[in-house]
Design a protein that fits this description.
The protein is of the alpha/beta class. It is built from 15 helices and 13 strands. Helix 3 packs parallel to helix 4 and helix 4 crosses helix 5. It is globular and about 60 Å long. The structure holds adenosine monophosphate.
Amino acid sequence: MAYRNTTSANRNRSARPSGNRPGVRSFRPGKGGNRSGGKKRTGAYIHPSKFINRAKPQTEEAPYEPTHLFTDFNFNAKLQSNIDYKGYTAPSAIQDQSIPHVLAGSDVIGLANTGTGKTAAFALPIIERLAAKPELNSVLIVAPTRELAQQIDEQFRAFSYGMKLYSTLVVGGTNIDRQIQQLRRGPHVIIGTPGRLRDLMKRNVLKLDHIRTLVLDEADRMLDMGFINDIKAIVEETPADRQTLFFSATITPEIEKLVQGFLCDPKTVSVRTADTSESVDQDVVEAGDKEEKLETLLNLLSQEEFEKVLVFGETKFGVQRLSDHLEKSGVPSTAIHGNKSQSQRQRALKAFKDNKVRVMVATDVAARGLDIPNVSHVINFDQPQTYEDYVHRIGRTGRGGATGKALTFIDRR
Ligand code: AMP
């Protein structure tokens, strides 16, 4: 696979076949598993058989054939040249199907996961409108995590390069005074997380009465993270005749309610592929106690095929401790969790993305929505609280046509 060649530190050593990994024993369904060694877990019990799957060959899925070229959208010449510069040759499915609706001014419900190109699906038509009419404070993009907001801001800047359009990132964990100054200067686009946006609204710094387009990105994640009241308060402050673009990977009754309250005669675009976990080889790893788990993890990480590994832990403390332990044991590793400042998180993410470290240990919340290319393995050192979290975790690997691998530690029976 292509990603092997780019990241392997030592290409001469041959990788051991994954079926014979020491410490990895296949779970035999039917015998039942222990819950979690007496440890209290708040999530529902997930039967270990749900952590096992053989990846379906990716070739089964025909590549998407877009009905538009980017040039069909008649974008501003500068915007089109920025798209070319980014190397996008054809629109992805969500872009192909939603850009015409967004350009026409409709409300849109986009059912799409991270990694499908949904950022450009809303950013490009928004930039097109701003190029024609550069109104200040007219776009608000709300995202669940700082990292996702940051990624949106980066993409917005790349697509609007040289167009004299400005965005401001308004997220927690960073200096609020600088954000206040930037907001006072009047950006065209405001991108933020719900908590910090609310904070600035309460301080009367952020006024939303000029918003013409509101984007709610990963709305399902925002609900999971308990932002419902913040979102409602934010939406209420925007003009009723705004355009609303609503993205979510799932439609639950709660999401349905939000859609009905926030959107007006929306067009729905769904590009959800079958379960993303289909493209991931999944297996369990049995371990008796913490000590053995650590030893087995080190054993796995010593194998060459574990090239770029995302390890999930349950708590902020546990994640940091595990990352420190790996470092001490000679495995360069970084950690991402809510106890780190925004700049520390960004540094950690960059080190992992740029292949400076091979291993990143993360909590669920910190890893949400991150676009990290070429993750070879996801290891669930601690089991996820819910199956949905599990699917989300393993969705970090097996992207863009590659087969990913996921291993979940379970208690020895
Ligand atoms: P997103 O789902 O917006 O986070 O995008 C996921 C990744 O796909 C990002 O790295 C984008 O730069 C990339 N991407 C989005 N749209 C396209 C496209 N039309 N062609 C090539 N790459 C794309």
